[in-house]
């Protein structure tokens, strides 16, 4: 099976490997404009802009050094 691995920015947060059977060719229709969405920033200086209202759950991870995830 053939697959393509894309070089994506880290903020894309999607798996970069796509298998050829799931890819489809793009056919541009000049009568239909391509919508471009401008997303608001989600952080400034690595700090979230929106503060969560409540923490629903926490868990301990099983790594070399146990740590609590929120």
UniProtKB/TrEMBL annotation:
- State the name under which the record lists this protein: Uncharacterized protein
């Amino acid at each position: 099976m053939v697959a393509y691995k894309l070089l994506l920015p880290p903020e894309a947060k999607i798996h970069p490997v796509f298998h050829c059977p799931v890819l489809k060719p793009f056919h541009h229709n000049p009568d239909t404009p391509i919508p471009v969405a401008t997303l608001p920033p989600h952080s400034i200086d690595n700090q979230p802009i929106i503060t969560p209202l409540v923490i629903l759950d926490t868990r301990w991870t099983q790594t070399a050094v146990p740590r609590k995830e929120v």
